[in-house]
């Protein structure tokens, strides 16, 4: 029998390396804090892990989806649910808010989209987030092709810049094979991007038109050079990853349109729709549109590349500042991904253009700046926790040490927990460090032909020592700023703690003084006493009254207590008694309290329960008709209040008991 969970969740980010699992951990911690059971399914780069079963989904009270890619949310139809971007679940506090919202959300039986957590009242997921999620689904599947193809292509250069060329002096057959394999993988980048954007929108039927759209984006509209006419044997001008994005969305929404068009066909034709109608008509429509927009898209793609080159012409500072800020502003979020995807697109064109070309030099230099900017933020945290160790918690220190490995391997997300705790000024600090590394990489003429890998690809990086130096300078500057901020924060916290301690001490003194200013003084509340019987209790109260200056003669006071008990027991109910004495030996009217957890024997009560709390009234003989009756009346009234009895019984703090009784005697 399947185990039942209070909450089921699914997390996923475009790269599937850090955000996915950080959100999982935050959700699990938040659920544990609330005493809830949870199972989190992760959609990482290795695929789906900890997969949810239909029975587990059915048995859950609510669903949380924190993903920037398609996690097949249609499975959760009819369940109360919230759906947000993965970055919204990185912090434990934020993850807890999502869980709380999911538990009170309304179920969406159609699951057109999930409820947005900001309201958790059935409001639909924003269209902007839907578009972003579809885009990131494509990017997620594309990145592995970029990384594998780019690194293999870069490795081929180890045998020489032209080692893949059989006519070159440095030719190597193995290097040539590496470049061929890498080129094939890189060539699949745009079709895969397009296909999986489409798949996120229109599911499996959208893969076919999505792949076709991506292939057309690569080759463009073929035209015969002689006739100037459209020619299947001609050559076209591709429009790159931008065309792949447009083609992906086009293919996905065309499938949704066709689903509506063919919705009225008989159910027995469903198989025909999937195998024939959808692929045929979607491919035709998408193909024609993509060919039709080939010219404008090529112009837009060229204009974008020219703009980036124009930034470079403005100087390394302008371009490096833009790259550095984009890469570190959201640590693997949409802005970071936009910068990285742009870098890989530039690199793809660079590798296609060939070593030594202007396009190659610009693209690989741009990629070096992007990589440097992504590597720096985690290394800043490592520097900070080592140099300023005492300013960080042990948890932060351990995370900072791990970030050294993450940073060296180009995984920016390790810095996210540090930024979420103090967005200002940690985010600007990270942006400064990344920008410095980017600017210096551009100025030093570093060329990185690999799109990922961090320091693992140093052997193929041109001017590698200068690249490491650029990253080190950005790390140190950012690290020093981060330590300075944490030192300021730590010093402020220390001063606040000292002030709090001093305030607490003053408050304690004032509380003690206040507790001795009321009708019942804390010093006259005797707790934790072991008393043999009623008479011993009254004798103890009499002796302490003399010691406190309330009465002059303990024997006379004791006799007054016994005289009243002879008239009838003062034992009440639930362990309470209100012994009272009227005597000339009492200087001023007072109340004393005696508590015994073991109970006082030989003291008759109305419900036969042993007396555990005696509230004694001591009144001068001259006030017998005034103060005596007033105090007795108020104490008796208080004892009829269940809340008062429970409060007195629950504490052995003299000050607290004195306060409780004084409030009733006021």
From TrEMBL:
GO terms for molecular function: carbohydrate:proton symporter activity; protein-N(PI)-phosphohistidine-fructose phosphotransferase system transporter activity; protein-phosphocysteine-sugar phosphotransferase activity. The keyword Amino-acid biosynthesis does not apply. Gene3D superfamilies: 3.40.50.2300, Mannitol-specific EII, Chain A. Residues 7-102 form the PTS EIIB type-2 domain. CDD domains: PTS_IIA_fru, PTS_IIB_fructose. One of its GO terms (cellular component) is plasma membrane. Keywords: Cell membrane, Membrane, Phosphoprotein, Phosphotransferase system, Sugar transport, Transferase, Transmembrane, Transmembrane helix, Transport. Residues 518-664 form the PTS EIIA type-2 domain. GO terms for biological process: phosphoenolpyruvate-dependent sugar phosphotransferase system. InterPro entries: Bacterial_PTS_Sugar_Transport, PTrfase/Anion_transptr, PTS_EIIA_type-2_dom, PTS_EIIB-like_sf, PTS_EIIB_2, PTS_EIIB_2/3, PTS_EIIC, PTS_EIIC_2. It is found in: Cell inner membrane. It is a multi-pass membrane protein. Residues 131-495 form the PTS EIIC type-2 domain. The chain crosses the membrane at residues 142-162, 174-198, 205-223, 235-256, 276-295, 307-327, 339-360, 366-387, 426-446, 466-485. The keyword Nucleotide-binding does not apply. This is PTS system mannose-specific EIIBCA component. It comes from Collinsella intestinalis. The gene is manP.
């Amino acid at each position: 029998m399947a185990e039942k969970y209070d909450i089921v969740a699914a997390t996923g980010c475009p790269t599937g390396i850090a955000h996915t699992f950080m959100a999982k951990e935050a959700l699990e911690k938040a659920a544990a804090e609330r005493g809830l059971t949870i199972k989190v399914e992760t959609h990482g780069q290795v695929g789906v892990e900890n997969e949810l079963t239909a029975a587990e989904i059915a048995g859950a009270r609510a669903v949380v989806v924190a993903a920037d890619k398609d996690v097949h949310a249609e499975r959760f139809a009819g369940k109360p649910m919230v759906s947000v971007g993965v970055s919204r679940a990185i912090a434990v506090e934020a993850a807890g808010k999502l869980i709380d919202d999911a538990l009170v959300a309304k179920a969406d039986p159609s699951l057109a989209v999930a409820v947005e957590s900001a309201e958790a009242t059935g409001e639909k997921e924003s269209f902007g987030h839907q578009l972003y999620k579809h885009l990131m689904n494509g990017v997620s599947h594309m990145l592995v092709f970029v990384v594998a193809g780019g690194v293999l292509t870069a490795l081929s250069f180890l045998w020489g810049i032209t080692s893949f060329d059989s006519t070159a002096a440095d030719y190597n057959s193995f290097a040539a094979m590496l470049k061929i394999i890498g080129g094939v993988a890189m060539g699949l980048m745009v079709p895969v991007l397009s296909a999986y954007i489409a798949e996120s929108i229109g599911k499996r039927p959208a893969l076919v038109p999505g792949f076709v759209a991506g292939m057309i984006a690569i080759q463009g509209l073929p035209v015969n050079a002689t006739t100037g006419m459209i020619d299947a044997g001609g050559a076209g001008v591709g429009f790159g990853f931008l065309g792949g994005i447009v083609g992906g969305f086009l293919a996905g929404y065309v499938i949704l349109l066709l689903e509506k068009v063919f919705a009225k066909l008989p159910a027995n034709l469903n198989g025909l729709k999937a195998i024939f109608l959808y692929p045929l008509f979607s491919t035709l429509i998408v193909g024609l549109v993509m060919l039709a927009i080939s010219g404008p898209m090529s112009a837009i793609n060229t204009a974008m590349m020219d703009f980036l080159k124009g930034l470079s012409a403005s100087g390394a500072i302008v371009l490096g500042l833009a790259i550095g800020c984009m890469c570190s502003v959201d640590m693997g979020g949409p802005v970071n991904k936009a910068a990285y995807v742009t870098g890989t697109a530039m690199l793809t064109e660079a590798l296609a253009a060939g070593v030594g070309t202007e396009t190659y030099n610009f693209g690989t230099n741009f990629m070096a700046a992007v990589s440097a900017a992504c590597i720096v933020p985690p290394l800043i945290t490592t520097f900070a926790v080592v140099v300023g160790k005492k300013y960080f918690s042990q948890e932060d220190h351990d995370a900072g040490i791990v970030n050294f490995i993450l940073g060296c391997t180009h995984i920016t997300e390790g810095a996210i927990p540090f930024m979420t705790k103090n967005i200002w000024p940690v985010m600007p600090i990270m942006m400064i460090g990344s920008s410095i590394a980017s600017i210096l990489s551009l100025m030093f003429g570093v060329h990185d032909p690999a799109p990922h890998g961090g320091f693992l690809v140093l052997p193929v990086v041109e001017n590698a020592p200068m690249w490491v130096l650029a990253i080190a300078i950005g790390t140190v500057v950012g690290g020093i700023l981060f330590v300075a901020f944490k030192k300021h924060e730590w010093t402020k916290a220390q001063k606040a703690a000292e002030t709090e301690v001093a305030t607490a001490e003053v408050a304690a003194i004032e509380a003690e003084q206040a507790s001795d200013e009321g009708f019942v003084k804390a010093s006259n509340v005797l707790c934790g006493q072991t008393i043999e019987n009623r008479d011993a209790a009254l004798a103890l109260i009499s002796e302490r009254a003399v010691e406190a200056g309330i009465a002059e003669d303990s024997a006379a006071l004791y006799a007054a207590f016994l005289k009243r008990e002879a008239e009838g027991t003062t034992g009440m109910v639930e362990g309470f008694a209100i012994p009272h004495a009227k005597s000339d030996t009492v200087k001023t009217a007072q109340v004393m309290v005696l508590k015994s957890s073991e109970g006082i024997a030989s003291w008759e009560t109305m419900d036969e329960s042993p007396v555990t709390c005696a509230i004694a009234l001591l009144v001068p003989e001259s006030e017998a008709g005034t103060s005596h009756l007033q105090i007795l009346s108020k104490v008796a009234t208080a004892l009829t209040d269940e809340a008062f009895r429970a409060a007195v019984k629950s504490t052995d703090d003299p000050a607290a008991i004195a306060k409780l009784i004084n409030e009733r005697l006021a």
